[in-house]
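2024-03-11 09:14:02 INFO receiving multi-entity request
2024-03-11 09:14:02 INFO entity count = two
2024-03-11 09:14:03 INFO echoing inputs for audit
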Amino acid sequence: MARATSRPRARYSADAAGLGAPRAAAFIAPAMALIAVFLVFPALWVIYLGLTNYRLTGAAAAEPQFVGLDNFVKAVADGGFWNSAWLTVQFVLGSAVIGQVVLGFTIAWLLRDRQGPLKRVVEGLVILAWILPGAVVSFLWIALLDRDGGTLNALLGIPGFPWLLDHPMLSIIIFNTWRGTAFSMMLYGAALGNVPPSHLESARLAGASGWQQLRDVVFPHIRGHILTNLLLISLWTFNDFTPFLLTAGGPDHKSEVLAVHVYNVALRGGELGFGAAVSTIILLINLVVAVFYLRLLRRRS
Amino acid sequence: MKRSIGAVAVLAVTGMALTACGQSSSDADTIELTITQNAIAGGKNAAAADHIANWVIPKFEAAQKAKGKTVKVKFVPSGVDDEQYKTKLSLDLKSKKGADVIDIDGIWAGEFAEAGYIKPLSEVAGAETDSWEGWSQIPEAVQGLATYNGKKYALPIGTDGRVLYFNKTLFQKAGLPADWQPKSWQEIIDAGNKLKTAGVPTPIQINAGTAMGEATSMQGVLPLLAGAGGEIYKDGKWTGAAQPLKDALGLYQQIYGGSGLGDPKLQQEAKGRDKSFAEFADGKIGILMEGDYFWRGVVNPTDGVAKMADRDQVVGFAMIPAIQPGKGIRGQDFVSMSGGALRTVNPNSKHPKEAFELAAFTLSPEALKEETKQNVRITPRTDVNKEILTGDPLLMFISEKVLPLTAYRPPLAVYPQVSAALQEATAQVVSGKAPDQAAADYQAKLEGLVGGAGNVAS
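2024-03-11 09:21:47 INFO inference complete, emitting structure
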């Protein structure tokens, strides 16, 4: 309480001295400059490139021409883009929404009242998946899923089963779920700590079942956490490039999510202008998703 | 306010310090050069990397010293997929950076030249590049690899050819001759069926798909196209969904479409080509279509990536037949495709003349003989080839029988994109699409790449 009252007073006195605005500006200027240089400028540059026929090599690399919305029209008319968009929806729904949120919450719920070594071991293992670099764990999973000599096939006794080739989307969904569950688990672990034990206690005394406790006491309390978690990991998953390391989008574009699609057309295919246009579309989708979630969050809170 | 100025100052100083790190700290009269290729000690093309680092650099520095110049050369290694190497080079050259002497694939010359990334040698390093002694030893066709729009952009480092490799041990098991030479595609399929009956896991493997990039074109669809009498580009028009392409894609379907002759999965994996190399070396693949790199760099008993100690006894090779005798391009019975790498001078080099001297030095007879001592290959120089190829049966075979009937890819800037579309067509067939449909899709994509249906012949 004391802190809450002291803050406005400090700001007021700075304003009274006539130093507030310039001083604040001076403090945030370096941050703003960095954001402008590393975020705003590249974003604008990508939008501009999307309007040209810029290429990595060839005549259009030396003198790119302005082609208006051609690239955007081409992207939307291109089956490859829609294929990737649909795969990305599966990727986000499968690994972020169903996999990470449900699994992360379930683990957090099961561990909520436990103490001691078991909890620490489980948490440690799950967190390990999250803190290791994506490139490293990708190679581990490639070895794990390899059709000849892969650990998973050896364990299941099905040598020669080509996970990454016959089920590329399932493979990357499982991989991403495994990798990202830790973040959700930690978030829900913290959130569950904020649910007043007295509420749960009275619900229990009133004879509420486990599911009723969850639905009527826990979820209303952590709704904000769930939505924040959904927003963050949906966007992370949406823009995740690690599937490239597992399957490079193949075979035959069957796991080419949008981030991989952009890489394949822009850098491997050398079509920087077209790739920039697809990136711009992805940026717009990100904005729409973010705004949707934030609205939801505001309404619920 | 003061504090933020301080922060800015710290940033600025750090920035300057970082910039300073990038600059050389040696004397003003030392000439520093860098040379790069997609080669790395202990990895990809290790022998080439070792040769540059251990022989070329000390010898070149000593030769320059004798002329009174202090030259320091640094080798910049790389050990990645060719596609990644190309992307990195393009980005380097675009931002006016990169090594002074650079190796590129011959087929990138057109698009690099059009982008201004490479320039004619005489423009970069002076007219004396035209009077380099080596040119007189390099055959016209090989010089053509380094020529774009009538100007020499680079020094050709070598050329190559394609054959069918086969495992003689497996052939013996299947009752096939050790001096096998198929005369039609049907004879390849027949041999494949016999291998299959004899229990060979993968009887035939021909490169397909997008995962291995240009390898699919050079060691797969282009030789097949040539064998069916087709050329990817002829008389100013690109070949679309014509019969030869349908025939070539049809052969892919025969091999990968459920017959059990080939392993379609191997063509779809990101590292499929490396895997098929390993499987051939393990005696699991009967017939493999590859270039001479396979012999020199893959199953080479001393420094291959999938060494075969008994290579010379076990690995046989045969010319690639036309679909039927006399039905190949130019009415040939047998076909091949050739390419080659180039070594060029970065137009942004601070010391272009010395950089050219370094490039030329790597192509001196002494350097080539030294380089090919352990790992012989077809060099661009006739004088050197005469001396070094005699000891190697495959390279003799290629230089005598294959190179006279080989074909080259069109030296046009759009070719790599066309090639990628062709790889896509093979990928579709391998994953189950009908050859006619894949050919039609290819034609539609081709028209978009080469400026409309008017430039396509079907």
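2024-03-11 09:21:48 INFO post-check: Residues 1-11 of chain A have pLDDT under 50 and may be disordered.
2024-03-11 09:21:48 INFO post-check: Chain A touches chain B through 26 residues (CB under 8 Å).
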